[in-house]
Each structure stands twice: as structure tokens, then as C-alpha cells.
Amino acid sequence: MTDTTIDRVAIWVGESQLPLIQVLSGMPGLDVMALGGDSAMIRETADQLGAAHVPDPKVLAGVEADATLIADPSRIMPTEVLSAMIAEASRSNRPLLSMAPRPASIEESAELIASAVLPSPIPCFRDLPHGRRFIAATESFESPSAASVEISGPAAETSLAGRLFDAFDLLSTWFGLPSFVDATAVRPIGGQGQVAPRRLFAVARYPDGRAASISAGVDGGRHARITTLFGPGGRMQSLDGSLDWTGPKGEVIEHEATTTPGTDDFHRELAESIRCHVRMHERGERSRSPELIVDLLATCEAALLSSKTGEPESVDAVRRMLGRV
User: Which residues in 14-154 belong to E strands, given as ranges?
Assistant: First the structure.
């Protein structure tokens, strides 16, 4: 049966995300009922969409909606403002979602983690129908011994930390959390040291001797995910949701034709993710425990820290710095 429910969402947005929000507003099953932001361009977009304009993020979190989304990866929202949004969303009993995982730094983390449940990062592959389908298919593959994940797309879609979170979150379904992360950041050719990296390569080492590699970037191209598992079952890959499984001797066990990519792939995933979290919230469920979100944030922070120090970083050590003992 087709779900005809219309989910109402209030969105805090940056100007660079406005084209994305305009496409999102046309997605089936979603009603962008309020836009938050402090510029005339955002106010004009709200008028075009027939949505309310709310310049105060704390007020936006209290708007009568089914979910609140922070869709401005480039902005580091002050801790006190984010804490107020979390408190208001909790009081109003609705999910608070974010396209940029928070905390964004060790310095701001302890207060947020100690006082509240953090926003749920979206979109993540394992929250989506094709992600859950791929995970279900791997149950016949046996435990993988190694994996690689590539997640790429334009910077306007999410932050580098958002893509890292997505990758580590997916890997956690088979590997758990790594002990160490060794990462290298890639900066534009000719750029100075202060230029923010747009791609990061990481190797995650797990306590049982297994390993996984990650390539995460916000350096352009279409939104794409490639996940490859290696193990006793051979090689299993998901390319944008299409499955390719070959056995240990190279025999084809299952192969699906790849889908034709579209310019709105990320928008559809974002809409699916919002609706997924609204449905789970209605059932009193969470896709991840608060503890797992913090563990994954610590793993992302370890990768970002390693890219600066040039040394492998311990996830446990970073977790302790994030305020958890």
C-alpha cells in the first residue's frame, strides 16, 4: 500500500542550500512548512514556497511540524543555540535532524553531550530502503574481513564530517567501532594550508585485526556511494544501491544492472531519510542510541584529527576527550 502521509518539516537553511531545499519541497510526501535563516534571499524563498519564515533557530525548533532539519553544513551553530533547539524539539516531541554531525569540535562537545541528545545526522545509507536491502543481503555473505567505502558529492549537500559519519555508521554494522584511524586530507592544488580539505582518505583498524578504507569527499561530482566487502563469501559490492556479488572463485552469484543516476538522487535520499526518522519517532524508536551517535562522532573526530597530526589516532582517546569516560 502506498504511504500517502504528508510529513511537515521545518528547515534551518543556508543560502548555498536553497536550490536543494527548493527541489526537496517538490518531493512527494513532504511539506516544507517553515524556513529559518537570516537573509533576504531565504525570506524570498520561503515566500515562493508558501512557507513561514522564522529568523530565530530556537523558535524554528518549536514550530508545529513533524520534524526539524538543520540544513546548513557550512555554519557552526553556537553551542547555546543548538542546545536550545535540542531542548525545544524535545519539549515539542519531534525529531531534530541535521545534515552536519555535531559536535563539530572537541572544544564544544562536553556541554552538548552532557546535557542533551544530539541531532540525528541524515541522510545515512543504512536508514534508506536500498541501504537496508544491501545490509540484509550481506547476511548471506558471512562476516567480511575487509571493506572499502567511497562517498562523494558536492559541498552544498553536506559536510565532509557528514560523509565520514555516513561511512563509519555503515561500517559499524559489520565491524563495530575501530581502535585506530589513520587519515590523510586532500586540499586543492595550489591551496594554502588554511584551505579546508575537501576530500579525506582514511584507514580504520579494528580490534580483531580487520580493516576498512574510506574515501569521503565534498569536492564535486554527482552524489554517489560505493561499498565493497571482501571475505570468505568472495566480493560483494553496492554501487548506488545495485548489488554485485561474486564468489571466492570469481563465480557470479548475484548481479543487478546499475540504475541510471539522476541529479535529484541526494534530494530523494534526504526526503526518504526525513520520513524514515518521522516514522521511527512515531513508534517511539531511534535508528541509533545516543551512545552510538557519540561513538561515531568520536570516530569521525579521530579521522579529522589524524588528518591534521599525520599520525594514527585512537578512537578511545578521542572519545574520552569528547566528555565520555
Answer: 30-36, 52-54, 67-71, 96-98, 120-121, 146-152
Distance CA 83, CA 300 (A): 21
Residue 193 predicted with pLDDT over 60: no
97: which strand partners?
Answer: 69, 120
Tell me the three cell numbers of residue 30. 513532504
Q: Where are the beta strands (DSSP E) in 249-318?
A: 252-255, 313-314
| Interatomic CA distance for residues 323 and 325, integer angstroms | 7
Q: What φ, ψ does residue 132 adopt, rounded to 5°?
A: -65, -35
72-88 burial, b at 16+ Cβ within 10 Å, e below that, comes to bbebebebeebbbbbbb
Residue 123, Cβ density class (10 Å: 0-12 exposed, 13-18 middle, ≥19 buried): buried
- Helix count and strand count (H, E) for the chain: 10, 15
What the block records as the C-alpha cell of 318 is: 578521542
Residue 1 banded pLDDT, cuts 50, 70, 90: very low
Helix 106-115 vs helix 290-309: crossing angle, to nearest 10: 170
Condensed to tens digits (0 to 9), the pLDDT of residues 263-278 reads 788 999 999 999 999 9
Do 267 and 275 contact (CB within 8 A), yes or no?
no
- Model-level pTM greater than 0.90? yes
What are 212-222's pLDDT values in tens digits?
999 999 998 89
CA dihedral of residues 133, 178, 302, 11 (deg, nearest 10): 20
Closest by CA position to 187, among listed 224, 221, 160, 156: 160
Q: What angle do CA 134, 139, 141 make, to 5 degrees?
A: 90
